[in-house]
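STRUCTURE:
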């Protein structure tokens, strides 16, 4: 006869072991929201390329927990739809993490849901400074327009330009870019003679170019969200004779994303931009990233910056899963990545423990011709270790 006490102890041990086994075998679901169809589909495909490149290089499980990625399509900025998709991912699909989000208004709509859902949101793109302040569960691996714009104020002065007209899309990242440029440019001795804000759905930029011409400015500073708007704006600048008239063009790198350079042609050569990532960045980490992301995209000419935000975003999510052992604990997950530093394809980066936004190098780049005759963003100067100046008090 086995004593009753011993039987009970054996049963308890068994239950404990089974608990442990199931704890190490969770499937952790990650919901990624992005523009996978419509006019910005190429940007969403770059999210997917970054996610899949990361998983191909780092495995599809963390500490024995399988990772399952669920993609949800949000073609254009649409806060109501963004909220509905996030809610569905949390409630129906039971995701433990949210990632992606191309447009600022969508990030703003999702952030208030996170605490009740016990889910962190890792932003792969949306670039308005204030997003990280909407919830303590937001972490961002992309950039802010304040971060990419600020170095350009001094650069414009150094290029002999004292009067600039700014032209930005009239929503969060555009307003941040306008303010950041004005602050940096005027601190360096320049003057913003006019500040144009363009509706998000603007497609005809010729009236804007006329205003640039009429302003008498020596240079133009511009931000628009990358995709059809940026292509249209740069083409209009090139085709209306402003370049020939000697007007200098300064912009965030959104306007010269590599996937648009073939369509922009030779007239884009010489444009100066500030940005966190160039496909041409020379490092072993970037070489491996470009190879893996290109494999997913199937065509090297489609690769652009949203892929690096996604690749590093997955790195952050993997670190969160590691720290929580696959268990759902959003607060613990976010705490674990505060101060996290790693070698990104863009250069050295870290998550600022105070703001949860990525600290990184911002590069001055010039559109130039490579030895193969193709255009590239050539890094010509590095502004090291930049926090988000848009959050400075
Ligand atoms: C944004 O909506 O925050 C956004 C979108 C596209 C960009 C940059 C910022 O290229």
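SEQUENCE:
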């Amino acid at each position: 006869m086995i004593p009753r006490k011993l039987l009970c102890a054996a049963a308890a041990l068994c239950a404990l072991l089974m608990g442990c086994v199931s704890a190490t075998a969770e499937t952790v679901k990650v919901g990624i929201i992005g523009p996978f169809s419509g006019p910005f589909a190429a940007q969403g495909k770059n999210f997917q390329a970054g996610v899949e490149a990361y998983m191909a290089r780092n495995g599809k499980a963390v500490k024995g927990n399988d990772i399952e990625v669920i993609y949800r399509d949000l073609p254009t900025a649409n806060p109501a739809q963004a909220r509905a998709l996030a809610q569905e991912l949390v409630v129906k699909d039971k995701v433990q993490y949210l990632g992606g989000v191309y447009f600022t208004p969508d990030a703003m709509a999702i952030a208030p849901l996170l605490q009740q859902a016990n889910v962190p949101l890792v932003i792969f793109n949306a670039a308005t400074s204030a997003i990280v302040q909407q919830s303590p569960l937001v972490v961002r691996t992309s950039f802010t327009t304040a971060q990419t714009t600020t170095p350009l104020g001094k650069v414009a002065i150094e290029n002999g330009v004292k009067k600039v007209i700014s032209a930005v899309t009239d929503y969060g990242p555009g307003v941040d870019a306008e303010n950041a440029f004005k602050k940096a440019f005027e601190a360096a001795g320049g003057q913003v003679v006019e500040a144009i804000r363009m509706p998000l759905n603007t497609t005809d930029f010729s009236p804007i170019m006329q205003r640039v011409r009429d302003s008498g400015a020596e240079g133009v500073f511009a931000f628009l969200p990358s995709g059809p708007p940026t292509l249209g704006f740069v083409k209009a600048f090139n085709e209306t004779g402003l370049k020939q008239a000697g007007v200098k063009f300064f912009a965030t790198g959104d306007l010269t994303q590599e996937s648009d350079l073939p369509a922009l042609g030779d007239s884009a050569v010489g444009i100066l931009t500030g940005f966190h990532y160039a496909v041409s960045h020379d490092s072993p980490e970037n070489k491996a990233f470009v190879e893996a992301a290109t494999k997913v995209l199937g065509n090297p000419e489609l690769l652009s910056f949203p892929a690096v935000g996604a690749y590093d975003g997955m790195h952050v999510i993997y670190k969160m899963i590691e720290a929580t052992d696959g268990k759902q604990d959003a607060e613990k997950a976010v705490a674990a990545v505060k101060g996290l530093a790693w070698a990104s394809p863009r250069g050295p980066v870290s998550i600022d423990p105070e703001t949860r936004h990525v600290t990184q190098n911002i590069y001055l780049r010039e559109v130039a011709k490579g030895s193969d005759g193709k255009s590239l963003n050539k890094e010509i100067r590095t502004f090291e270790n930049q926090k988000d100046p848009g959050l400075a008090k």
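REMARK: The chain has two domains: 27-143+281-355, 146-275+363-386.
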